[in-house]
Here is the input.
Amino acid sequence: MSNFYLNDPNIVINGNIKPLEYRIYSYCCSQFNVKKMQAFIRLVNIGGQFQKTKEEVEEILISLSKIKVHDRELISIKEGPEYILFDMPAHRYFIEQIGFKKFKTYKGWRALNGYLKQINQVEINYLYKDMDQFQLQEKLESLPIEELNKINSKDLQYPWILKSVKSIK
Here is the structure.
């Protein structure tokens, strides 16, 4: 469906989930339709993606249905009139907590956009931040060795320059 999908971090933290189960659950999350708030799970697609037989996929989905996060199953399985119906109650709850609603995804995307902007606004105060890498190299070469040893590479915008200057001196 898309390259970007949401996945609840509490599943890894609180859920007793095996790596293959998590990969399959993540794949199911990537196929979840946020606009319609419905899961799209096909056993054949999962089996093809992970090189598993239909029976192995069914066993994994049954084990995922026994795991609960936020007092909701990761995957619910119901017998339909013609085929098996799958749902993802824990994922649906997680999506709704962000702000997504059926056919109303604007609030959810807006909340995510605000969160991502907040993450990107981290400001780091570097030493000699107004210098490019060549000016920084000249400045560091002019410093005495005692002062040069006090500088941490994480404090510089171009940490490899410090390493090269120390190797020269």
